[in-house]
Amino acid sequence: MANHSQNIGIIDFKDAYGLISVQGRDAALFLQGQLTADIREITTNQPAFSAYCNHKGRIRTLCRIFLLNDTYYLQLPQSLISSILTLLKQMAKFSKVSINAVGNEWRQLGIIFPTSETHALKFLSEITHKNPDIIQIPYPDSSDHSRITYIGSQDILNPYWEKLTKAADRTTFEVWKSFDIKAGIPEIFPETFEKFLPHYLNLPALGAVSFKKGCYCGQEIIARMEYRTTIKRHLYCAVLFEANEIPLPGTPIWIDNPQQESVGTVVNAVRTAETSNAIEMLIEILDSVLENHQKPYIAFKNLEHHSNPKAHIITGITSTNFGIYAS
User: Fold this and answer.
1) pTM for this model (two decimals)
2) 157 — phi, psi (to 5°)?
């Protein structure tokens, strides 16, 4: 990677994601009773995507979990670190575990590169090959791009950051979010804390829910939805044109007017480009809205009483059932 490449983007996740460490004799057993993923399957080389739910099965956060030197780490949005840390510590009162926020001690980098960039693949593979203390988390490939997150201590990963900044372009978290949306990967934020059930966000298909493990928080509700319930709402990709602002997570979606019950919710949204008037979104919505060819829309605060704000009609709605997230 000696030559600067306009096709490779690097992101510093310092402000976007934090880390929570869980260590101790009961760490695996404790997490097995809290998260939807099967902790027994997680190794240094096999991270996982998971949800942490309340007893009603509502998602508190989504996280990536990895194991390093007998300690489990949960990567989740920085805005949820404090609340999740408090909840986990409350649940761990009678377990022999130590739970701490450790994000400041680590470096978290994201790499986006064309799948055809063979020299990039070679250089990136050397990072983890030469350093077993650097965790690599691959993301689902798009049609022509790949993404990888690298997580490691500051002293180990900083030299690679210096090399990468000389060989690639720094990009923004919004670009990373755009790839997440295209891949159908949801995120939970404070605005949507305990709002969604895992099936509504397609988590079983993304490999974030295990139905073979024992009991965990919310398991009874989630299992019932899998085996005894017809799921009537799902996660979809969508586009919003000509909106002056990006809808926040948790923004309601309507089909008639805001005085009636909403039919869905914005999960995540990002503008496609700085100069674009289009916003890419992940939305959770009733399947019947699409089956009946209705036109869902978003009403921002200044349009609450507008019965049909056509400028904010949601279009391009497509399924996100792309398959397994974790390889």
Assistant:
1) 0.90
2) -90, -25
